[in-house]
Amino acid sequence: MDLSLSPEHLEIRRLVRGFAEREVKPRAEAIDHDDAFPRDLVAKAAQLGLLGTLVPEVYGGAGLDHLAFAIFVEEVARYSASTAGILDVHGSVGTEPIILFGNEEQKRRWLPDLARGQKLAAFALTEPEAGSDAANLKTTATRSDGAYVLDGSKIFITNAGEAQLYVVMATMRPGSGAEGITTFLVGGDNPGLKVGPKLKKMGLNGSAIAEVHLDHCRVDEKDRLGEEGEGFRIAMRALDSGRIGISAQAVGLAQGALDDAVAYAKERKQFGKPIAELQTIQNKIADMTVQVRAARWMTWKAAARCDAGQPFTTDASMAKLFATDAAMAITLDALQVFGGYGYLEDYPMARRVRDAKACQIYEGTNQVQRVVIARELVRS
After folding, report:
1. Cβ atoms of residues 322 and 298 within 8 Å
2. Domains along the chain?
3. Which of 368, 377, 354 is nearest to 320 (CA)?
């Protein structure tokens, strides 16, 4: 298997790395401390065409593949995991369901604005009682005069309050599980959609997460995505490729922590020499390097299988499980390299540790990823 990047992928990495170093890196600490949504960075990413990475060119996007998307997310997450998360959710689970399951009218109505960043997207599946048990939705969709009326609440919705489009899953047959779920495209200006206060998190500050309430939210029939009862399949397919993005986010976060640890180890002196010359520090750096590379290659493998049209559910779950666990371990080890300074908020390690924890939880906890991996192996 050739693991080298094509000239096109190398160019994407060069473009995004320049953007991340020039625009994202100087803002990373302020975004975390101020917990401010980085609208300016989202706009600048849109100007580079990054918000439409996966959108076909005919609809105004870049028409690139999932490997390019993973490279893009990793490079941004190297400096700001929260900014990467905003862009990742928009481009993957927020936009890709329309690419894959939308009809021509829906694609032409939504994709150009999403690709240009004139509209931001959110994915509304999770509910207070339907997190890992995603088929147990309480949000209902009822037919009414050629339209649908949605009632219920969603929680932990990334980009809530900032998005102009919500991809919403609701059940048309309460108690029927996956078979009753249908997907809808709900505009952020719909009077029946209300967003609660921004939730205070321990990490990923700057990324807006909130509850979304649907109160007699009327949605036209033309805004149903796919057929009735197809919603759970749409959600699971979105999450499969979405996990490639989360894996890439974890890889970038881990790479940034490793970069910082190596730079600090070269400068910090103990016992009359840089701590980078101490074997115990070298062992940590070596172990972190191996984990980062393994996580990156697993992420690229899942992306390559997705792009080739091959089954990739298992690969995406394996990448998400390994990469996010690795990011958690690497950020903690990098903090240890910094010693007492690593524990200070003035240094980046506290932020990286807090951000890494979220990656083990959202878009399917790592416990769920183990269930998915085992289930797919038993089925095959």
Report:
1. yes
2. 7-116 (1.10.540.10), 121-229 (2.40.110.10), 233-379 (1.20.140.10)
3. 368
Other CB atoms closer than 10 Å to residue 75's CB: what's the count?
Answer: 27
Q: How far apart are CA 222 and CA 219, in angstroms?
A: 8
380: helix, strand or coil: coil
Whether the predicted pLDDT of 347 surpasses 90? no
Rounded to an integer, the average pLDDT of 53-66 is: 97
pLDDT tops 70 at residue 139: yes
Token digits for 108? 């032409």
- Write the pLDDT tens digit of every residue in 236-260: 999 999 999 999 999 999 999 999 9
Give the mean pLDDT of 192-202: 95
The SS3 assignment for 211 reads: strand
CA separation for the pair 350, 89 (Å, rounded) = 24
Which of 74, 127, 211, 363 is flagged as catalytic? 363
127 among known catalytic residues: no
DSSP3 helix / strand / coil % (the chain, rounded to 5): 60, 15, 25
